[in-house]
Design goal:
Largest sheet: 6 strands, antiparallel
Number of strands: 10
Length: 106
């Protein structure tokens, strides 16, 4: 079973939707309320996040970086990372390779 195109809650104040997954690539849109947090975690997938709106503080292996609308950040495989939304209606477009099977088949 796949949940492509289905909005689902993630952490408090965070919802996500897998837009597509094909071959070794997956894209997901993630919306945040102000102050909402994508909890610290790691995974073996390479990730790039594009800020669609608002701004965020990303923490990647204990290094903080602020990302605003129109900016992109790369997250290496296995890096411990998390994010906090600094503004209301902040949104990210995340790309993963390979596909995050753990998110796709819930």
């Amino acid at each position: 079973m796949s949940n492509i195109g289905v909005w689902e809650p993630a952490e408090p104040g965070v919802k996500r939707c897998i837009l597509n997954a094909a071959g070794e690539l997956m894209m997901m849109e993630v919306h945040f309320e102000k102050g909402a947090e994508g909890y610290q975690h790691s995974h073996p997938h390479q990730q790039m996040s594009y800020c669609l709106s608002g701004s965020f503080i990303f923490t990647i292996d204990d290094v903080e970086t602020t990302v605003s609308a129109g900016e992109t950040i790369a997250i290496p495989p296995n890096a411990r990372h998390g994010v906090v939304a600094l503004e209301e209606n902040s949104a990210l477009l995340d790309a993963f390779t390979p596909i995050r099977e753990d998110l796709l088949k819930r």
